[in-house]
Design goal:
Strand content: 15-25%
Number of domains: 2
Pfam families: M20_dimer, Peptidase_M20
Keywords: Hydrolase, Manganese, Metal-binding, Signal
Largest sheet: 7 strands, mixed
Number of strands: 17
Structural class: alpha+beta
Protein name: Amidohydrolase
Shape: elongated
InterPro entries: Amidohydrolase (IPR017439), Bact_exopeptidase_dim_dom (IPR036264), Peptidase_M20 (IPR002933), Peptidase_M20_dimer (IPR011650)
CATH architecture of the largest domain: 3-Layer(aba) Sandwich
Binding site for Mn(2+): 130, 132, 166, 193, 407
Strand order of the largest sheet: 1-2-6-3-7-17-8
Helix content: 25-40%
Order of helices and strands: HHHEEEEEHEHEEEEEHEEEHEEHHEHH
Length: 437
């Protein structure tokens, strides 16, 4: 008889096997080497969510080399590395590992040419377009520094390499697999994320609100097909989809409190087959972001209302009204204010006030919040790490031009100063939280 835990492991292995070998054949870098070289290796070998087998093996090898007790395949491909170093608090430090289905266009000599398997089984280019390769490199550097400086701190350090952040499933999977029962449960949890809003060498700590709530919405717009030359005989779903898109904008421009951030983005729209055919269906995919659960509910309810109302106005019969499917993604990510203030003080002392920047909260979403939501007594902070090359930053500021953002095919952090600052920042925060009495 298969136990529930064994069933979960087998299911994860089935997903990984079905996804194909990906980078299983690529040799692993030697543990203990230069962090920039490690970054370039990780950047060249990205893996999609739930397929991070090579990345996890690299993280596990590095943690073992630094002296941590390592457990692999937690919540699928997750890695947990523990160092018990006397009495004191337990600190969790998380990195994410997954890449994105993006074709890289940075032109870097170590640019990714990797291919992966998308959820539908199709082949897709893969890129670390969100900087998780930076995060992993900083995680390794922090593990090394904390191991070297064991005489200076006391407590337990739990280093977590998490899968599937991009699809907001990895943190929940690791927690479900016993992260807080099989391993020491933390009093504090820290994470960082690279950021295109600052040059490399600078950091920012959100005081409370950090990242938004997100929901995914799928809308199937239905109509009556026919010849493109005789639109009067049809109910055109393409025109209806366009009207729905326009109507959705009023949910933020006319129904939302301007002091409450909200975003509705139609990220995908597909319909029709040929120039002269009016099809019978259009499919749309949306993302919805806000910082409040009641507001999020209002927005998603509004989407369903607008879709239905526009269809009725277009004369769509009741049996062909749009089908709206809503998938709740993640709650807002909020830092614990007291811990955020403490970490800010540490960074100001470490770097000086000029390198500690105040930024607006991000409308992106994360699943780092899961580590605190699982137990409200756990204090959490995620902070931002500037990643833009200083010369490129200065030029863009002088010319008023924009730079590639996260998830863009041209996103290319400046590795050496970004990683060095990240390691120094995370180590300083960890040393403060695990300081000897």
């Amino acid at each position: 008889m298969t136990s529930p835990r064994r069933s979960a492991v087998l299911a994860a292995l089935t997903v990984l096997t079905a996804a194909g070998p990906l980078h299983a054949q690529a040799p692993l870098p030697k543990a203990g080497g230069d962090l920039v070289a490690l970054y370039k290796d990780l950047h060249s070998h990205p893996e999609l969510s739930l397929q991070e087998t090579r990345s996890a093996a690299v993280m596990a090898a590095e943690a073992r080399a630094a002296g941590f007790a390592v457990t692999e395949k937690v919540g699928g491909t997750g890695v947990v590395a523990v160092m018990v170093n006397g009495p004191g608090p337990v600190l969790l430090v998380r990195t994410d590992m997954d890449g994105l289905p993006v074709k890289e266009a940075t032109g870097l000599p170590f640019a990714s040419t990797a291919m992966g398997k998308a959820a539908d089984g199709s082949d897709t280019p893969v890129m670390h377009a969100c900087g998780h390769d930076i995060h992993m490199s900083v995680w390794v550097g922090t593990a090394r520094e904390m191991a070297k400086r064991r005489a200076e701190w006391s407590g337990t350090l739990v280093m977590v390499a998490q899968p599937a952040e991009e699809i907001v499933r990895g943190a929940a999977a690791m927690l479900k697999d016993g992260l807080y029962t099989r391993f020491p449960k933390p009093q504090f949890a820290l994470a960082l994320h690279d950021d295109n809003r600052m040059p490399a060498g600078k950091v920012s700590v959100p005081a409370a609100a950090a990242l938004s709530s997100s929901s995914s919405v799928d809308i199937t717009v239905r109509g009556v097909s026919g010849h493109g030359a005789y639109p009067q005989t049809t109910k055109d779903p393409v025109v209806l989809a366009a009207n729905i898109i326009q109507g959705l904008q009023t949910l933020t421009s006319r129904e939302n409190d301007p002091f409450q951030p909200a975003v509705i983005t139609v990220g995908s729209i597909h319909g029709g087959t040929r120039h002269n055919i009016i099809g019978d269906e259009v499919k749309m995919q949306l993302t919805v972001r806000s910082y409040d659960s009641a507001q999020q509910q209002r927005l998603t309810d509004g989407i369903a209302r607008v879709a239905r109302g526009e269809a009725i106005a277009a004369g769509i019969p009741d049996d062909l009204l749009p089908v709206v499917t809503i998938e709740r993604g993640t709650a807002p990510t909020r830092n614990t204010p007291a811990l955020a203030e403490r970490v800010t003080r540490v960074f100001t002392k470490t770097f000086g006030p000029d390198r500690v920047v105040t930024l607006n909260p991000s409308m992106a979403s994360e699943d780092f919040n899961a580590y605190g939501l699982a137990d409200p007594s756990i204090e959490t902070v995620i902070f931002w790490l500037g990643g833009v090359n200083q010369a490129r930053w200065d030029e863009a500021q002088a010319k008023g031009t924009s730079l590639p953002s996260l998830h863009n095919s041209g996103w290319a952090p400046d590795p050496a100063p970004t990683i060095a600052t990240g390691v120094e920042a995370m180590t300083a925060a960890a040393m403060d939280l695990l300081a000897k009495p």
